[in-house]
Amino acid sequence: MKPVLSKTFVAALLALPLCSAHAIADPAKQTPAYIQLQRPVLINADLWTDKPEILAANYGFENIIGVPDLLGADDLPRAIAAGAGVNLDWAQLDPIPPLRNLTSAAGVLGSAVAGFGATPQFADAMPIEVSWPLLPGSVSPDNIAITLNTGEIVTPQAAALNPNYDHNERHVIVVFGKFGNRLSPDAVGAVYPMVVSFVEGNSPLMAVGPEGPVSLTGLSAPSSNPYVAGPALVGAKLSRFSPAGDFPPPALSNAFPNDAYSLYGGNAQYRLRLFTSGGFSPDGVSGFLPTDFETFFRLHALDSGGNPIVLDKAGKIYDLGAGKIEIVGLAEVGAPTEGVPDRAYYSEDHDNYFDIVIKGDAAAVRLLQSVEIPTSGVAGYSDIYNPGGPGRTPQPDTTYTMPARPQVFPIAHSLDQPRTVSHASQSLAGYDLDSDLPVVFRLRAKDQPDILTSDSQWANQLVGGQSHELEQVAFANETDRAGVSPVLAYTSASGDRLYTLDPAEQAVLDQDPDWSLEGRAFGAFDRAWPGLDPVYRFYDKNTGRHIFTSDSHYDKRSQGADNLGIAWYAALFVPPPPAPPESSGGGAAGVLWLLGLGLIWRSRRFMAPRSAAG
C-alpha cells in the first residue's frame, strides 16, 4: 500500500471540536499537535549560556513549505517544481518509503497537522536557535521581525517549536514566510534576510531560566545565507545522561522513543548534545541513523599527558591514561529498530539536536575537548546538509542549499553542573483538557488524601465542582518508555489513597480486598537521574493516610507522620520548602510551607546529581 497523507484523515483532524482552553476559530489551530505544543511545560531543558541570546537565525530554504496537493510519491513532481530536494530512486522501492524520506518539501495540510497553526503555501523557512528554552504558548509570529537586504521588515506567517518538540528541548522557533530567493547575495535582484529580531508583538516572547520566565524582546542576530554557507554547530554540551523530559507530545511521536536510554540502555552514561543551526541531513532530505557517528563526526581529547587523541570510531575503547572512554553511537534520531536500520525507511525526528552517547570513566570523559565535522574533504567522511539540500537525485538547473563547511566546536562541560531547567504553569486554565498531560496536578480537599493526577479533565471536574482545590502543578508525568515506571493509584475502604511504582507492592495490593486499583496516575523514575528530585512517602498515624511530597522534612512539620522513604523521582516544578530550624515551631513551619507552594516555577539546581541511595 502506498503511504500517503490521507485527505480524509487530515480533514478529520481539522474538524476536531474546540476544547474550552483553546476556543480558536482557525482550523489549523485546532489540530492535536498545535494544542499540545502550546502546553506551558519544560522538563530538564538545557541552558546553553548564562544569559538568553539568539545563537543563530539563519535563512533556511526557499519556497518548499506548503506545496499544494503534495500527499504522496506520485506528487513528487510538485516538490521538484518548487525546488525541493528529492529521492526519486527511493520512490521506486516497494513498499514506498515515507514521504518525508522522499522530499524535503512539505504539503499545505502537512504543516497544519504538524502543529504550526497555519497553512502557508510555497513559503520559505528559517530556524531561530535560542540559548534558553522557549516558554510554550508565548511563541507567535508577531514577536519576530526579519529585516531583509532591501530594507523591508517582514513578519512570518507561522512560528512554532516544531520539530524541536521534546519537553527537554524547545530552544528553536521555526518560522515560515517570504524571506528571500536563491540568488547569490552579490547578484542583481538577490533578496535575503540580514537581521532577525524579537519584538514586543501582542504579548512578549518568553524564555525560561534559573529565575523563571523572562522576556526576550530586544534580542537580535544576523542571518546567514544557506545558498552560500551550510548548517553549523551552535552548541556542544557534555553532561551525565538523563532521560528526564526526553519525550514529545503524543501527536508528534512518530520518531519516539529516541533517547539514549531507549536506544542503548545502561551504556548511556554521558551525553554530548550537539545543537545545530538548521538541522542536519546526509543528503538534504533523509535523516541520520544511530550508526552515523563515524560518517559525520569525530571527537578530540587530550590524554593525561597532554597528547592529542582523535576518537573517530564507535565501539572502540580509547585509553586516555586517566581512564577509558567509548563512543556508543548517536541518539535523538529515531526509535530503536531490529537489526541495521534502512535509511530509506528510517523515521528520524529531523530537529536541531543530536546526542553523541558516551560511556567510560569520568576522568577520561573530562578530557574531551572538541567535536569536529570533517566533511567530505576528509577521506571516509560525508557532507552534511540542512533540509533544503539536493537529495539523492538532484535536478539540473536547481539551486540547493550548500553543505556544511569543516568545523571544530569546543565542548562545554556540564558534568558537575547539569545546567537545566524545568517549568510548568501553576494554573489549570493554562492546560487543555486531556487525560494524560505531561504534568501532575496535586488536588487537595479537607479530611481527604491528596489526589495526584495527570488528567486535566478530572482535575477540572473536581475543582469546578468545588470538592477540591488545585494546590500545585507538582512535578512531571513521564510518558511510558524504557526507564520510566508507571505509578499506579490505589484507594482503600478506609479512605486512604496510595501511589506506588513498585511492582511487588502493586501485586500485593492487587490481591488485597481492602484496596482497589484506580489505574495509572502518571509515570516516574525509580532512580535519581540528573534533573530529578525525590518524592517522599509518609504515613500519618493520626489520619491513617499516606502523604506523598517532595518535602523531606514533612515528618518534622507534622506530628505523627512516619517517613517511609523515597517513593519515586521526578522533575519538580515547585521546589520543596527549606528545612525547618531545629527550634522552629509549627507556626513558622506553616509559613515556610506556604512560601514554598507559592512559587510557580522550578529551576534545576546547578549541582552534581544525587545518588539513588535512600
- Average pLDDT figure: 91
C-alpha geometry: globular
Number of strands: 34
Report the helical percentage. 10-25%
Q: Give Rg in angstroms.
A: 25 Å
Proportion of residues in β-strands: 25-35%
Number of helices: 11
Low-confidence parts, pLDDT < 50 over ≥5 residues? 1-24, 583-614
- Counting helices, strands and paired strands, the structural category is alpha+beta
**In total, how many domains does the architecture comprise?**
2
Sheet of most strands: 6 strands, mixed
- The CA-CA distance between the termini, in Å, is 54 Å
Plain-language structure description:
- This protein is an alpha+beta fold.
- It folds into two domains: 27-414, no CATH class; 425-570, no CATH class.
- It has eleven helices and 34 strands.
- The strands form nine sheets. Strands 2, 3, 4, 5, 8 and 9 form a six-stranded mixed β-sheet that branches.
- α3 links the parallel β3 (61-67) and β4 (106-107).
- The longest helix has 13 residues, at 586-598.
- The chain is globular, with a radius of gyration of 25 Å.
- It starts with 6 loop residues before the first helix and ends in an 11-residue tail after the last strand.
- The model is unreliable at 1-24 and 583-614 (pLDDT under 50).
What is shown here, in short?
This protein has 614 residues and is an alpha+beta fold.
Secondary structure layout:
Blueprint: H1 7-14, H2 32-37, E1 41-46, E2 54-57, E3 61-67, H3 76-82, E4 106-107, H4 108-113, E5 123-130, E6 144-148, E7 153-154, E8 158-160, E9 172-177, E10 193-198, E11 206-209, E12 212-215, E13 220-222, E14 232-240, H5 260-264, E15 270-277, H6 293-296, E16 298-302, E17 308-311, E18 317-319, E19 324-331, E20 353-360, H7 362-365, E21 368-373, E22 407-410, E23 412-413, E24 420-424, E25 439-444, E26 451-453, H8 456-464, E27 469-476, E28 485-492, E29 497-500, H9 503-511, E30 515-524, E31 533-540, E32 545-549, H10 554-557, E33 561-570, H11 586-598, E34 602-603
Parallel strand pairs: 3-4, 14-23
Antiparallel strand pairs: 1-24, 2-5, 3-5, 5-9, 6-7, 6-10, 8-9, 10-13, 11-12, 14-15, 15-20, 16-17, 16-21, 18-19, 19-20, 21-22, 24-34, 25-26, 25-27, 28-29, 28-30, 31-32, 31-33
